[in-house]
């Protein structure tokens, strides 16, 4: 039997591989991750879209809810543009595809009206399954903001947009986000128009499963892949000096926990801010069971040992972090059977005036894996 020369055989294998449909359909996204960690005073702080990733727990601050009627237009999105790096060429291609739909002056009056947040897919009456729509949608909304908010620090908050979102406000490109199950935010303080109409524009692309290998998930899964702005979107107005986020890390079952408070100063000059921390038991009952803010579930205050008061200097147009170790004596531990919660309140005082109060809920619990066994609060869990 004649044997095929090795060189010819190798060439044949290469040609067969590169002509295989799986290879021809393979893609490599160059869209860069937006999340990063920065070291501030020895503390790792998450950043995204040029700002600290804020807490997405609703606070007792002024909220401008962007829920309601939007204008929308479906389109056949170019997934390669969607998943390309947003460099000069990538943005140029994105804007070319937009065909002015991202601009303030664009007339969207002929577009269909859509109440958001909601899935883009048409929800058919049972037992007919929902519309299986995976592709592009443009959303536009016009709104006005009170001039009384001109001195506030303003964040545009999205809880969920599936799958890639590009966002403009008044012709300013704010940035993008990939992934339908993580929230994201933008600092829009300087982009808002307080003397007239504002226009927010969102381009959404949800590439078809099984069409690419560089999306998550890349193949069909056992859930329905909804498209669109599918959860809350709103503006949050806070004082120019405010708490952006806190990180609470329980240390053990004895009530020790560490907290890091990230403070933002949106003013041009440095400010010395007094920080006070208090802890309360959560009191969840039939009247506040559906509360969105942790401040609505506060019960009795609990004694806390450790440093709960300090003064932090924050440079102008900057952030700073204060980290402290605290203890709750005889804590009520969190578990699945007894989901005990606490609420931490952080108060900021500037020049003798309280400028911000921030609330977050947390549980005291300890997680361990020892000898392939999972422990919760030093007890094995099946």
Give a quick set of tags describing it.
Jelly Rolls, 382 residues, mainly beta, 4 helices
Q: What can you tell me about this protein's structure?
A:
With 382 residues, the protein is mainly β. It folds into two domains: 61-238, Galactose-binding domain-like (Jelly Rolls); 241-369, Immunoglobulin-like, CATH 2.60.40. Helices cover 8% and strands 44% of the residues. It contains four helices and 27 strands. Strands 6-5-7-13-10-11 form a six-stranded antiparallel beta sheet, with no helix packed on it. Strands 18, 19, 21, 23 and 24 form a five-stranded antiparallel beta sheet that branches. A four-stranded antiparallel beta sheet has the order 4-15-8-12, with no helix packed on it. The chain starts with 5 loop residues before the first helix and ends with a strand. The relative contact order is 0.15. Mean pLDDT is 93; it is low at 12-24.
% residues in beta strands: 35-45%
CATH fold-type name of the largest domain: Jelly Rolls
CATH second-level architecture of the largest domain: Sandwich
Low-confidence stretches: 12-24
Largest sheet, order of strands side by side? 6-5-7-13-10-11
Helical residue percent?
under 10%
Shape: globular
Average pLDDT confidence is 93
Tally of domains: 2
CATH class of the largest domain: Mainly Beta
Q: Work out the helix count.
A: 4
Give a quick account of the main beta sheet: strands, pairing sense, barrel closure.
6 strands, antiparallel
Taking the alpha carbons of the first and last residues, their distance comes to: 62 Å
Q: Find the CATH superfamily of the largest domain.
A: Galactose-binding domain-like
């Amino acid at each position: 039997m004649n044997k095929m020369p090795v060189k010819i055989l190798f060439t044949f294998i290469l040609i067969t591989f590169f002509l295989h449909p799986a290879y021809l359909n393979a893609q490599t996204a160059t869209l860069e991750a937006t999340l990063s960690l920065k070291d501030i005073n020895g503390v790792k702080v998450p950043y995204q879209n040029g700002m600290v990733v804020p807490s997405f727990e609703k606070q007792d601050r002024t909220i401008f809810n962007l829920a309601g009627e939007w204008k929308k237009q479906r389109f056949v999105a170019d997934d390669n543009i969607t998943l390309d790096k947003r460099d000069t060429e990538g943005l140029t291609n994105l804007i070319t595809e937009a065909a002015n739909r991202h601009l303030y002056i664009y007339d969207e009056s002929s577009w269909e009206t859509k109440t958001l947040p909601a899935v883009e897919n048409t929800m058919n009456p049972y037992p007919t399954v929902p519309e299986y729509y995976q592709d592009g949608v443009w959303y536009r909304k016009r709104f006005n903001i009170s001039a009384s908010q001109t001195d506030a620090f303003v964040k545009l908050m999205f809880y969920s947009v599936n799958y890639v979102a590009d966002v403009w406000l008044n012709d300013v490109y704010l940035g993008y986000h990939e992934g339908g199950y993580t929230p994201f935010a933008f600092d829009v303080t300087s982009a808002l128009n307080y003397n007239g109409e504002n226009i927010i524009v969102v381009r959404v692309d949800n590439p078809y499963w099984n069409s690419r290998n560089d999306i998550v998930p890349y193949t069909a899964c056992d859930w329905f892949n909804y498209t669109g702005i599918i959860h809350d979107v709103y503006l949050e107005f806070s004082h120019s000096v405010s708490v952006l986020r806190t990180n609470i890390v329980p240390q053990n079952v004895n009530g020790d926990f560490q907290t890091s408070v990230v403070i933002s100063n949106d003013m041009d000059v440095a400010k010395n801010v007094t920080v006070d921390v208090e802890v309360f038991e959560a009191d969840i009952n039939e009247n506040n069971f559906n509360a969105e803010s942790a401040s609505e579930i506060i019960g009795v205050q609990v004694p806390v040992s450790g440093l709960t008061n300090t003064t932090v200097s924050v440079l102008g147009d900057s952030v700073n972090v204060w980290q402290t170790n605290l203890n709750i004596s005889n804590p009520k531990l969190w578990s699945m059977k007894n989901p005990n919660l606490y609420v931490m309140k952080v108060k900021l005082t500037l020049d003798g005036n309280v400028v911000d109060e921030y609330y977050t809920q947390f549980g005291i619990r300890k997680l361990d894996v020892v000898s392939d066994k999972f422990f919760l609060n030093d007890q094995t869990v099946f």
